[in-house]
Hints:
With 153 residues, this protein is of the alpha+beta class. It has helices at residues 33-42, 46-61, 131-143, and strands at residues 18-19, 25-26, 30-31, 66-70, 73-78, 82-89, 93-98, 119-124. The model is unreliable at 1-8 (pLDDT under 50).
Amino acid sequence: xxxxxxxxxxxxxxxxxxxxxxxxxxxxxxxxxxxxxxxxxxxxxxxxxxxxxxxxxxxxxxxxxxxxxxxxxxxxxxxxxxxxxxxxxxxxxxxxxxxxxxxxxxxxxxxxxxxxxxxxxxxxxxxxxxxxxxxxxxxxxxxxxxxxxxxxx
Length: 153
């Protein structure tokens, strides 16, 4: 049986984070590291540890990274250049999305014609995390023009 956090976790404003569909933490939109850390702390079970590993890997490989929580997901970007990566909790996995992933080498496996440039990987409980490949993708993605939701694709 998978462990799922039953008790809500306090957010940066002192409220309790609610887990919405698939166990994804509901965290108010906000810029900065604090809301991202609140999101990660509220990730249920094994996903919390994975969130910490992902965040540390991104910070280690992109020292000037900008962070925010938007649409109940942590976003990572470069100031003035847009967002390059986000992750999201689902019932059985954490989806790591590269907004310009079709330009990465090798191209991450997830994607459809409808997803346009975005590509992703799904990480399931017990999966071996290839941190070398993930770090390479993070560095490549951070060097590309990012996604800006205020500009048309």
